Structures are given as C-alpha cells and as structure tokens.
Amino acid sequence: MVFIRTNDTNLQLCTIGRALALTAFVASPSVCGLRLLTPTGAYPGGVVEESWVSEPSDPATFSLLLSNLNTHDTYALVASVITSAGHVYFTTPDVPSSLDYVLEAVNVTNDNVVYSTTDPFVIS
In the CATH scheme, what is the code of domain 33-123? Predict the structure, then answer.
C-alpha cells in the first residue's frame, strides 16, 4: 500500500488503479509488500536495529522517519535505506518520552508518499 500524507491525514491508495484524493486523481505505484516491524527498547541516544519485510516489486530505496503521533514532530533518521538489506541501524534522536512514536518508510524524494508505518511504540 502507498499512503499520501495530507494535513496529517493518511489517505490509503490502492495499488490497483487510482484513488480520489482531495478531488484529484492520484496514480499509485505497485508497492504492497514493504512492512516495517515495530521496534522495542528505544531510548534517546540508543542504537535501534529496524527490520522489515519486502517484496521484489517494492522500491529499491526508501527514507526512514521517526514521527510522534501526538505532537506531529518528524525526525529524519536515514536518508537512503536499501530495501533489500532487510534492516538498518539508527541512533534515536534526543526526543521527549512518549508512547506514540512510529517509524515511516517514505519515498526518498517525497516524504509525503508513505510506503509503510510501524505500530506506535515507546521511546523512554
């Protein structure tokens, strides 16, 4: 699935055709398999290994972002991740403790195109 972020709302776009988003048709690429796994044990300054499952039709690269669902703050973690690697390490930024962080795999040139999002997790 591909998500287009607009005004902090994710509109799910199906990979089989076009979806109406804000009265405009937006074509979505065929990207269904990329699925980020939810990390555990994250804390500010700590190193996290993020893993994912992917399909051959997924994009070759993506960027990894950290977002707080409550404050809507977003942090760039890794600019260009190689999808076929299956995992990447990053250092958690110095962020306030919260139960509502998610990781997002996004298009490397347009972070409004979200390929996958983890379930919410804790940074403390």
Answer: 2.60.40
